Amino acid sequence: MVRGLHSPVMGHRILVVGGGGREHALAWKIAASPLVDRVLCAPGNPGTRAVAENHAVKASDADGISKLVRREKVDLVVVGPEDPLALGLADRLRKEGVLVFGPGAAGAQIESSKAWAKDLMRRYGIPTAASRTFDRFAALRAWFEESQDPVPCAIKADGLAAGKGVVIPQTVDEALEAAWEMMEEKKFGDAGKRVIVEEFLRGRELSVFSITDGRTIAVLEPAQDYKRVGDGDTGPNTGGMGAVCPAPAGTPEVMDAATREILVRTVHALARDGVEYRGCIFTGLMATRAGPKVIEFNCRFGDPETQAVLRRMTSDIVPLLVGAASGRLADVERLEWDQRPSVCVVVASPGYPGKVTTGDAIVGLEAAGEVPGVVVFHAGTAAVGDRVITAGGRVLSVTAVGDTVAAARAAAYEAVSRISFSGMVVRRDIAADAAR
Ligand code: AMP
Ligand code: GLY
Prior knowledge:
Helix content: 25-40%
CATH topology of the largest domain: D-amino Acid Aminotransferase, Chain A, domain 1
Bound molecules: adenosine monophosphate, glycine
Oligomer: single chain
């Protein structure tokens, strides 16, 4: 519980910025808090309407958000997506005296520049894949020509690319083609001007959220997401097609090592560099034989991991968010978790992660929500009269808790089977490995 600053701590007005599945899950969890009076979303989605007031302001519209905050006397803003953070939304709101959960543009560089994040990790001895950064294609090609065994490796666009800017080439030709598309064909615009080539890490992945006020951290239960679009981890990378919590790779040994050598060190590294970070640090980790190593950082909660993680959080999330935003995280009580696992299955539009077809009517949402243990979070949906239609790449995050991973999976897929729209894309093997 947050003491002091906000006592009495009742009556918060909290604005969630964004309109995806992650933001629906955040709004849903915030709305469950007895400390909250009103939850607002900008812009939210048809799903958030059930738990919050939607305001037609885009996450990218800093002026609009600033006005909304003043007009509605919001006392905490929780920023969901990375783009507004990278563009300085949190800096601006803080300057205006508003409490914000989410880093300023300086801290957001842990995600908005992979080269910056790599440099931070190198300087502070934070375990991560060995890497090189290239500004010119010719230099990258020369490096590949001189190196022995340069593949497999990871080729990454430096900047923000909606989770799609990473290629794992198996041959040098594939590597050069991927780098050429990023650097010369500008596949991701300026985000691909610089390219990072990384050592290929072997092991199991996990996603860990550290909530921090820049000094103290609270580590949430680890999740695993499923990045590739196809069953059996095939096809291109996506923002995430599903998640399971807890992550099978998140053993006590891995979590202890990660907390000590990576999560705490990262917060200290940022503070030593003079970067004030108040929000969530998402660390994508590979549990390798040599211990956990950082694959990537994100400056926000993950999507769809958040949907799975928050289904298991039994503590009130509001003291955590307020504590981090106000620099008083040390006063927040230990978090409590539902011991049952959770599974999130993403339902996407045809074509995802490429160009998608949208505008199709979604049927069966109500029936899906009636499956015991299931909550259907909306992502890319829109309301037309009393119908809900598809309006984005990832459309729904169907989440379930169950006594076992197998039971949670079965419930999630039962709910998915009750939903239909034209050409819907679903991975059939989410959490299958974790259920074994
Ligand atoms: P990122 O966007 O950096 O998380 O990368 C997307 C996905 O590519 C990760 O979730 C991993 O599955 C994979 N990946 C990225 N970097 C590496 C690496 N150095 N070694 C092995 N796999 C990687
Ligand atoms: N699911 C990974 C991400 O949010 O970037």
